[in-house]
Amino acid sequence: MDPKKLLIVFTYAPAGLGHIRVADALMDSLPPGHQSITFTSTHVALESLHRFMSLNIFARRLMEWVQHGIPQKIFTKYYRKYLKNHTENLFLEFTSLIKSQKNIPKKIIIVSTHFSLSYQLGTIKEQLEKELNTKIFLVAQITDDSPQYIWYIDTADLIIAPSQKTAQELQKYGQKENLKYIPFEVLPYPINPTFIKDLGESKINGRQKQFDPNSNEPINIIIPISGAAVGMKFFTKIIDKLRQFSNRYIFYVVCRKAPFTQNFIKKIESKSYVNLYVSQNYQEVVHMYNRIYQNYVISSEITKPSEQSFKALLNQNSVGGSFLFFATPVGRQEYDNLKFLKKNNLLSVNSRGIVLPKGTTNCAKFINKLYQHGNLLDTFKSYKSDKTNFEIQPTGATLFWKTVLKKFN
Fold first, then answer.
1. What CATH number has the domain bearing residue 105?
2. DSSP string over 72-115
């Protein structure tokens, strides 16, 4: 089909940054000549719920409880039903967006990186097709390597999983529950093409010098604060403790501006050794994070083991190939992501990332020890990626479009 007659619609929900980062990677990998727009719901309560479930210890325990076994099965059944019955203003919002385009396309591919909008838009898909006189396909990209039942989206036309294990477990669940058959594709996790690019010789040398304990090169460390702003006290303390060890440590902190991050921002912005990047807009936060990697040579990242885990698929000589220090996981999906990395030999001092010990002081000592003893320098020089393992290739975003456009064009 002529790309001009096809419109790609990227959807995201105001709940955290993970699925927005994945959508951003897919947007930036879209082949030239294709038209695309973004669509989000005005349902802002989702953001508050996401933050509450991430921060409140009792809500977090409840969340983790319903992510396993029989509780997960019951929760998924009723939450799926709830989402399908609460499409609210989506029909009007979506049709208004499409009709505002210069020409209404003959075909629309909706790319969804959040299950809530996948269920809701999928439920009203036939109504949308009739109103717009167009054919619509819904593609859902799973954003963690976690086979949680809610990701068996029975309103989708295609579900893309980052591993065979996750795909098989979800397919087995769908069959057992007699849900509508939905085809799955297994493709490597989609990483933004910006991060995949080779650093170039001078910047590769710069990253090596950062890992060298005998060098005076400043050590650039990036710290992305999650959308729910989990771990602000932890990150504040670890920044100060590392700086006490050495004035080589320089930090790049990316944070969304919100009422609940106001105090954190005030504390951080006064520190001369911290470069702070702040925006109220979710997408702009993601773009700032990308630009930091483009503009500076980052040697390591301290982060949650969420969607950032999959930068471990990158070569250490690539733009995004920093060494990853993972904070204590929160929620089943983060534990599952770490299992994926461990299974693929990506989780150790000698590979691409490591889980930090408990306690802020222990974390700072651990990071400093790896830098000062030359462990990270050895890893940087010797690590070789496994090019034979399909699931850990960095080209997932490109393969996504080859698969989707071939299937629905």
1. 3.40.50
2. HHHHHHHHHHHHHT--TTHHHHHHHHHHTSSS--SEEEEEESSH
Q: Is 250 helix (H, G, I), strand (E, B) or coil?
A: strand
> Is 126 in contact with 135 (CB distance < 8 Å)?
no
For residue 280, the domain's CATH number is: 3.40.50.2000
Domain of 163 in residue numbering reads as 3-191+394-408
What is the spatial distance between Cα 250 and Cα 272, in angstroms, rounded to a whole number? 9
Tens of pLDDT, residue by residue, the chain (409 residues):
566 789 999 998 766 788 899 999 999 999 999 999 999 875 544 554 444 444 555 555 666 656 667 777 888 888 899 889 988 789 999 999 999 998 889 999 999 998 889 999 999 999 999 999 999 999 999 999 999 999 999 999 999 999 999 999 999 999 999 999 999 999 999 999 999 999 999 999 999 999 999 999 999 999 998 766 566 888 899 999 999 999 999 999 998 888 878 888 888 888 999 999 999 888 899 999 999 999 999 999 999 998 889 999 999 999 999 999 999 888 889 999 999 999 999 999 999 999 999 999 999 999 999 999 999 999 999 999 998 999 999 999 999 999 999 999 8
C-alpha to C-alpha distances, 388 to 166, 384, 391, 395, 404, nearest whole angstrom: 20, 12, 9, 13, 23
User: Do residues 103 and 229 share a domain?
Assistant: no
Total domains in the fold of the chain: 2
Non-local (6+) Cβ contacts of 45 within 8 A are none
SS3 state at 249:
strand
Q: Whole-angstrom Cα distance, residue 71 to residue 62?
A: 10
Report the C-alpha gap between 116 and 358 in whole angstroms: 33
Q: Are strands 135-141 and 107-112 parallel, antiparallel or unpaired?
A: parallel
SS3 state at 216: coil
Indicate the SS3 state at residue 342.
helix
